[in-house]
Design goal:
Blueprint: H1 10-16, H2 18-35, H3 37-40, H4 77-113, H5 115-129, H6 133-143, H7 148-174, H8 178-185, H9 190-226, H10 236-243, H11 251-279, H12 281-284
Length: about 290
Amino acid sequence: MRCIALRSGTLGALWRSPKGLIPAVTLVIVALAAVLAPWISPHDPYKQDLLNSLQAPAPWGGTWEFPLGTDYHGRDILSRILFGSRVSLSVSLAGVAVATVAGVSIGLISGYFGGRVDDVLMRVADISLAFPPIVLAVAVLALFPPNVYLVSLVIAFTTWVWFARTVRSIVLQLKSMEFVVAAQAIGVSHARIIFRHLLPNVLPVVIATGTTLLGFGVLLEASLSFFGLTGTTLSWGWDIAYARDFIAVGWWMVTMPGLALFITSVSLNLFGDWLRDRLDPRLSRLID
């Protein structure tokens, strides 16, 4: 069986490539900050301290008790960013995970069986693409009580198409290759061909696509939080929306969560691009 597999030197290539290493290290730091937030946050992110309202960040005249300053109600911005990362990353990760399972499954079935099955599934994909993500999310969340689980489902619904179309295009090429034709000729079941011969060949590109779409998910979650549609007040998007009325007296209230959102989404996109360059068979010749 010919298989598009991860090169054994991928980690070595990452170490030698600033284009991949810098966003990868940044994402590791963001992930660790999210996981360790309850232990490394200097303050309770919900606790109000009006005596310390609108404290500037430490480098700009504030105190190191509040390194990134405080908001209008005296809440520590660093603590809110750390806990907000847990919401943004977990919601996006859950949504993209559901989209991966659904999209890869549909892409494999559509590309392998072709014909009417392919036509029906791709028309469903076209219909999904017709809905702008923000408009769809607002419409769904207007009908149901806002909550982060519903946001994850919205992210899944708006991203599964990318997995499905990417996987389908690869499978359409793979199913005419000798190892698939030979397996069909000796009577190997469809399920075995799909899971043993086709799925391993699409996984590298799926990983690259998923990393990029995580950045989209983080931005979508922040956008919905900005409009108060996620059911939580501990989110980067909500903090930016809250701070917009105080930007004239506390620029850091918008800047700090905005930088966290910007750095995370850009790092995910850059790392996804690096993975695609490394793993895409047409770019990296990964077919053994």
